[in-house]
Amino acid sequence: MSTCKLNLLLVLLFISLNSFAVDYYWIGGSGNWGDLNHWATASGNGSVLHNKTPGSGDDVYIDANSLNGFTDTIVMNVQTAFCRSFTINNIGGHVTIIFQNSATLRLFGSIDFDDATLISATIICESAI
Predict the structure, then answer these.
(1) CA-to-CA distance for 92 and 67, rounded, in angstroms?
(2) Who wins on pLDDT, 62 or 4?
(3) Nearest in space to 110 (alpha carbons), one of 77, 78, 88
(4) Which residues contact residue 91 at a Cβ distance below 8 angstroms, ignoring those fewer than 6 apart?
(5) Across 82-89, average pLDDT
(6) What pLDDT is stored for residue 91 in this prediction?
(7) Which 8-state DSSP code applies to residue 10?
């Protein structure tokens, strides 16, 4: 195999590895970010749970199936939380995100929040390079 073809193959492999994000859906209403019982593979409480919290290449969603009541709270109880994108849409209520003990959320992509989202924190947006 020529060097040019090998380099192209490596570039395509790198691009494909970086383009597959895992979807993380918040379920179960109020709770702590680090609690795995709140991270599902699909929207709704009947979903399969993840075995780790979201990472820098993962997409986080909070939607109408995430809340138990009209007002729920998500507590960032980890020092640094990660995700590629963070979306809160069509929740039909209010979600408050509280950052404990100077916790941070490091985003490596986009952020999209409903008007009903209350946040009191510093969010760091970075390049994934």
Answers:
(1) 9
(2) 62
(3) 88
(4) 62, 63, 64, 66, 67, 114, 116, 117
(5) 93
(6) 83
(7) H
Which two tokens mark 100? 């404990």
Overall average pLDDT of the 44-59 stretch: 90
Q: How many CB atoms lie within 10 A of CB 22?
A: 14
Output the pLDDT for position 17. Answer: 44
Q: Please give the Cα distance from 100 to 128 (Å, whole number).
A: 25
| pLDDT of 5 strictly over 50 | no
Residues 6+ apart with CB under 8 A from 125: 107, 108, 111
pLDDT at residue 127, rounded to an integer: 57
Q: Residue 93 is encoded by which pair of tokens?
A: 């209520």
Alpha-carbon gap, residue 109 to 56, rounded angstroms: 9
Amino acid sitting at position 86? F
